[in-house]
Design brief:
The complex is a heterodimer of chains A (110) and B (123). With 110 residues, chain A is mainly beta. Chain A is built from no helices and nine strands. Chain A has strands at 9-12, 18-23, 35-39, 46-49, 63-68, 71-76, 85-93, 98-101, 105-109. Chain A is globular, with a radius of gyration of 13 Å. Chain B is mainly beta. The chains are: A mainly beta (110), B mainly beta (123). The interface between A and B is medium-sized, with 26 and 26 residues.
């Protein structure tokens, strides 16, 4: 049971806009910045979004992040086949005094 | 460009200690702008943070409560690396283990990762 809640799966067709939610509490998402990671099969996780909505250099602007209160979202616009992957949100938890992750969302491009 | 290179055994017997090392190039384990983490991934639990170590005038470590006191993370400044020890392993500890840098430049996100080590706990 993950501390942060994500939908287990999401799907869309090429070109579509997809959104993944990440729900937490006042001790994590509500008081800390949220990061998003992409996991491709056989590869190490890749940082997509940090500080709620900041993209590291090299990350396509199709990926964007937002946060409101204790919920955050990752949006993928112009969905592409190479976006098929698992996506995880993460935040620091002040009560657990550690980093917590969501359960992950598997994105399928139909 | 920071690179993290993991090493360690891929098979560990139940009740034994899992030990992995993460060598750092392009940064210093003693940097006051980085924190060094271990994270694992398994089909049943997804990504799971295990703990971290960092230097801010002195060495600090934080561990996941779920580790139940089995986790030790140490830094070796002479080799510019840090290590993970997980004691009394069970088959539930079978996972891909990653080391990762938590950087001030990205507000504490993990911007560099090791290649991952699949560790199997089995007799």
């Amino acid at each position: 049971q993950s501390v942060l809640t994500q939908p287990p799966s999401a799907s869309g067709t090429p070109g579509q806009r997809l959104s993944i939610s990440c729900s937490g509490s006042s001790s994590n998402v509500g008081s800390s910045t949220v990061d998003w990671y992409q996991l491709l099969p056989g590869a190490a996780p890749k940082l997509l979004i940090h500080s709620d909505n900041q993209r590291p250099s090299g990350v396509p602007d199709r990926f964007s992040g937002s946060k409101s209160g204790t919920s955050a979202s990752l949006a993928i616009t112009g969905l592409q086949s190479e976006d098929e992957a698992d996506y995880y949100c993460a935040a620091w938890d002040d009560t657990l005094y550690g980093r917590v992750f969501g359960g992950g969302t598997r994105v399928t491009v139909l | 460009q920071v690179q993290l290179q993991q090493s360690g055994p891929r098979l560990v017997r139940p009740s034994q200690t899992l030990s992995l090392t993460c060598g750092i190039s392009g940064d210093s384990v003693s940097s006051n702008r980085a924190v060094w983490n271990w994270i694992r991934q398994s089909p049943s639990r997804g990504l799971e943070w295990l703990g971290r170590s960092y230097y801010r005038s002195r060495w600090h470590s934080n561990y996941a409560l779920s580790g139940k006191g089995r986790i030790i993370i140490n830094a070796d400044t002479s080799k510019n690396q840090f290590s993970l020890q997980l004691r009394s392993v069970t088959p539930e500890d079978t996972a891909i283990y990653y080391c990762a840098r938590e950087a001030d430049a990205v507000s504490g996100a993990y911007d560099s990762w090791g290649q991952g080590t699949l560790v199997t706990v089995s007799s």
